Amino acid sequence: MKAIMISGRTLAQGAGCECKMSPDFLKAVSLCHLSKGDYDALGLCEGKNVQLKNEFGQVVLAPKVDAGLRQGMVFIPMGPWANVLVGPDTGGCGTPQFKGIEVEVEATDASVLEIRDLFRGLRRAQT
Amino acid sequence: MIVEDAICSFCGCLCDDINVEVEEGKIKRVRHACRLGSSKILGHDRIKAPMIRRGGKLSEVSYQEAYDRAAEILLRAQKPLLYGWASTVCEAQKKGILLAEEVGGVLDSTATVCHGPSVIGIEEKGLPGATLGQVKNRADTIVFWGCNPAEAHPRHSLRYSSNVCGRFTPEGRAGRTIVVVDVRETRTSKNADKTVIIQPGTDYEVISALRMLVAGKGDGVPDEVGGVPKAELDGLAKTLLAARFGAVFFGLGITHSRGRYKNIDNALSLVAELNSHTKFVIMPMRGHYNVGGIGQVLAWSSGFPMSVDFTRNAPYFNPGETAACDLLAKADTDAAMIIAADAASSFPRAAVEALAKIPVIQIDPYENPTTLISEVVIPSAIAGVEAEGTAYRMDGMALRMRKLVDTSYPSDEEILSHILESVHRLQRGLER
User: Fold this and answer.
1) What is the CATH number of the domain that holds A24?
2) Which residue range forms the structural domain that includes residue A100?
3) For burial by CB atoms within 10 Å, which of A126, B64, B101, B182 has the most?
4) Which residues of A touch B27 (CB under 8 A)?
5) Is residue A107 assigned to a domain?
């Protein structure tokens, strides 16, 4: 399913943002909010995750139904999981486009990466 | 002991009515703060000691060793990036600018991944602003555009905007019209009289349509703009024109979307147009508590509000070239110092990958993803909780943050002073 991704603040993200290595932050931020219609269309159920993919990367997130979203739009709390899907281009103004990003969404049995695993492939983050 | 009317050091609201209970040198209870502020003030796991990465692993060292290594990295680099500065006080920011000048680096703030486009838009057009006190006491119409203060600035509505009673707004929420413009329904829109849902990336077009309607040139507006029927936009324009004192608060919904600084430029023009009919003000909802401060301190010391390059003979500012993400994308920086911010969490992945390829010095109270890619880690006191200093509220008011408890950790300002001393010592050594 094609969708437009936006990232942004949530209360739980804010409360955990100075405590990012904790399991609570993982739970608060590695989420993909989507409409009930999209949740059903993707055949999601308890225990299933979603994989979001675009030209910049791919990431597995836990789905969460959000009544505020229209079909075709997904919301990810701001943080390192959302930023996997954000491109580095700043359009000459220094700021990357963190919202309004095209993504491909599908259901998956894969697990959400823990925060240390999300950075494990990078140099100096081997341990 | 109870510290009364302490200032919260979480977001740009800088709520100044927080009561903090301190017992045996530890903060035990926080009253009046929101969930975000309480979580920060109460504190949690800290980085215990300075560390340097050796053989792939971070090992504890003395503060002096960490200062010397940081100085060595900064001096050896051709163009170090000194990034962050949003969660610390102005006194530390001032010291950081001195360090950037001394080592010849680029100093950038978290504004570049936040309200940087607002800063640029405001430079283009100027800001018809107000204090939050004026909004509280006078505003009868408030628009929240692309922002969700109910989750990002939870006490904003209770202290400064929608729901507060003021001198000329004695009825509080009942006497105000609240409008939300967003791409989705949010907790903030639940408290609104009118919610206008637009298609993502159409803020510029919708603002343009409103400018035409407000100016009485609605004939040229198409039947639908940004997914919103013209009649609905016309209704919104009438609501804005009916205000005696209107306030627009805007957030990352428009700075992070297609159009970026042009959206802000256009929103400022809308407010200018409204001011030829009634009184309107506009304000960015600044996130980190002192991201406004680094803009102020940089502006009065270098002439520019962010992304300032000190590698030339005079300060140079060209976002798109000198902003952190651009420097990293173009491999145009060869070392980084990240202070009072977590770049690894807030940058796009490609920028984080670039950051992991160069030596990184981290100055922060907490372990976070930036720690994982750092070569030198220097734990600091929490500014605004364990260290005093000045911070700028989102409306530009400078407030004095008090120290609430003692700590054995050095403040950001002290750490930067020590790194500067190490830099000077190394420079003298090189001269010999």
Assistant:
1) 2.40.40.20
2) 2-118
3) B182
4) none
5) yes
Whole-angstrom distance, CA of residue A115 vs CA of residue A24: 11
Residue B56 CA: distances (Å) to CA of A83, A121, B375, B379: 25, 13, 9, 19
> Is B320 close to A56, i.e. CB distance below 8 A?
no
Q: Which CATH number fits domain B117-284: 3.40.228.10, 2.40.128.190, 3.40.309.10, 3.30.360.10?
A: 3.40.228.10
Quick check: is A31 in a domain? yes
Residue B141 near residue B239, CB atoms below 8 Å: yes
B368/A67 CB distance under 8 A: no
Of B40, B120, B348, the CB nearest to A86: B348
Inform me whether the pLDDT recorded for A115 exceeds 90.
Answer: yes
Nearest-CA distance B301 → chain A (Å): 21
Backbone angles phi, psi at B329, to 5 degrees: -60, -35
Nearest to B200 among A73, A79, A119 (CB): A73
* B319/A92 touch (CB, cutoff 8 Å), yes or no: yes
Average pLDDT of chain B is: 97
Give burial (CB, 10 Å; 0-12/13-18/19+) of B323: buried
Residues of B in Cβ contact (< 8 Å) with A18 = 39-40, 44, 365-366
**Cβ–Cβ of B39/A19 closer than 8 Å?**
yes
Q: Which residues in chain A (47-86) have CB-CB distances under 8 A to chain B? A: 56-57, 66-70, 73, 75, 78-80, 83-84, 86
Mode of pairing for the β-strands spanning B228-229 and A99-108: unpaired
Determine the average pLDDT of the residues in B153-174.
97
Q: Are B150 and B195 in contact (CB under 8 A)?
A: no
- Distance of residue B12 Cα from the nearest chain A Cα, in angstroms: 13
- pLDDT digits over B77-127, tens only? 999 999 999 999 999 999 999 999 999 999 999 999 999 999 999 998 999
Give Cα A111 distance to the centre of its chain: 13
- Residue A126 within a domain: no
Q: Tell me the pLDDT tens digit for each residue of B312-352.
A: 989 999 999 999 999 999 999 999 999 999 999 999 999 99
Q: According to CATH, what is the number of the domain B47-114+289-431?
A: 3.40.50.740
The model's pTM: 0.97
From the list B111, B118, B96, B179, the residue with the least C-alpha distance to B143 is: B179
CA angle B289, B294, B297 (to 5 degrees): 130
> Residue A127 domain-assigned?
no
- Domain spans of chain B, in order of start: 47-114+289-431, 117-284
Domain tally, chain A: 1
Determine the average pLDDT of the residues in B24-50.
94
CA distances from B98 to B63, B224, B301, B358, B420 (A): 21, 52, 10, 22, 8
The shortest C-alpha distance from A10 to chain B (Å) reads 5
pLDDT at B420: 98
CA distance A46 to chain B (A): 24
